[in-house]
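Severity: low
Component: inverse-folding endpoint
Summary: output formatting inconsistent between runs
Steps to reproduce: submit the following structure tokens with default settings.
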């Protein structure tokens, strides 16, 4: 098995990316998530061996079996994907044949991602497709490193910057809209991020308070303060050439990046005033992902949607492994009634 890229992040080409960029119009911001064996795309990219290797997971209704034909391309129609994918696509994307139009860009990405994953011994993942309407939420970047999502929940007095996630990594790509921002410079970026967070935390400690509501204004102000401070420090580091901001090209490149406060890539959602479609992939061993689903009271494999009506009982509030974003989403979605 070849070693993983040594860098904290690296952009990889998406093979056979469509010549024409996606032009999807979104009706709403929502996400579709699947956790299980690599989705079957067609016989050529090895779905038969995936299905065989995950026989213990084949009982769920949300899992899909490989198609028997090796000459047709079921992925072109999405026939091999969980039904929830089609339901999510029709509620999220305007116009005719929403799933097929999205698949034109999604399938090449998944083929490239699956090849990379298999090359590194990965047969299971947590895959999230996030569709986002234009937003001002990231006009100021939210620079961060991702957490070890398989770790136990953090205790309040744990130092988030000290969290280690040795060897853990993810893949991500924008299929439409701007790519994720990455900070080159590795250690310099993590140091600047850590310094800015510590400074904001010291300010917070100077005005202690107790959270009594789910959405605490003081905590929100601290979060905004961290963003401002990090943006200020990183702008200074950029000016002196210690770090630089780079983005993978939408639909053409995917990013490999490492996770954790010690070796993780510093990154942020990009500013976007256009409809954006983003894909996040967390690789994992079957037992890890199965355990994670169990922790949330869910079966494995499983697919689900957030932000669109579904004809099933309330889904658990889960995100894409970005703990800060997920915690916010959980808080917001606790009051949402899914019909
Ligand atoms: Fe992230």
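Observed output (run 2 of 3):
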């Amino acid at each position: 098995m070849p070693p993983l890229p040594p860098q904290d992040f690296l952009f990889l080409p998406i093979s056979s990316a469509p010549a024409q960029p996606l032009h999807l119009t979104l009706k709403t911001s929502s996400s579709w998530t699947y956790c299980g064996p690599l989705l079957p795309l067609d016989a050529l990219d090895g779905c038969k061996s995936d299905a065989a290797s995950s026989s213990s997971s084949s009982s769920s209704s949300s899992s899909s079996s490989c198609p028997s034909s090796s000459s047709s391309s079921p992925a072109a129609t999405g026939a091999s994907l969980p039904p929830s994918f089609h339901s999510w696509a029709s509620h999220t994307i305007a116009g005719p044949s929403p799933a097929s139009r999205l698949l034109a860009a999604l399938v090449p990405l998944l083929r490239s991602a699956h090849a990379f994953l298999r090359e590194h011994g990965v047969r299971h993942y947590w895959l999230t497709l996030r569709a986002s309407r234009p937003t001002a939420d990231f006009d100021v970047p939210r620079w961060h490193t991702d957490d070890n999502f398989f770790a136990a929940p953090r205790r309040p007095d744990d130092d988030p910057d000290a969290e280690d996630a040795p060897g853990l990594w993810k893949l991500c790509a924008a299929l439409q809209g701007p790519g994720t921002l990455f900070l080159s410079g590795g250690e310099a970026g993590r140091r600047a991020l850590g310094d800015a967070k510590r400074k904001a935390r010291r300010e917070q400690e100077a005005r202690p308070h107790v959270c009594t509501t789910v959405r605490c204004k003081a905590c929100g102000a601290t979060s905004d303060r961290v963003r401002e401070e990090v943006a200020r420090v990183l702008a200074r580091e950029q000016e002196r050439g210690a770090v630089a901001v780079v983005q993978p090209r939408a639909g053409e490149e995917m990013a490999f990046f490492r996770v954790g406060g010690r070796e993780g890539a510093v990154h942020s959602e990009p500013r976007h005033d256009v409809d954006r479609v983003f894909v996040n992939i967390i690789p994992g061993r079957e037992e890890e992902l199965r355990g994670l689903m169990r922790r949330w009271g869910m079966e494995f494999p499983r697919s689900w949607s957030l932000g669109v009506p579904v004809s099933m009982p309330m889904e658990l509030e889960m995100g894409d492994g970005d703990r800060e974003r997920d915690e916010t989403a959980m808080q917001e979605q606790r009051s949402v009634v899914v019909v």
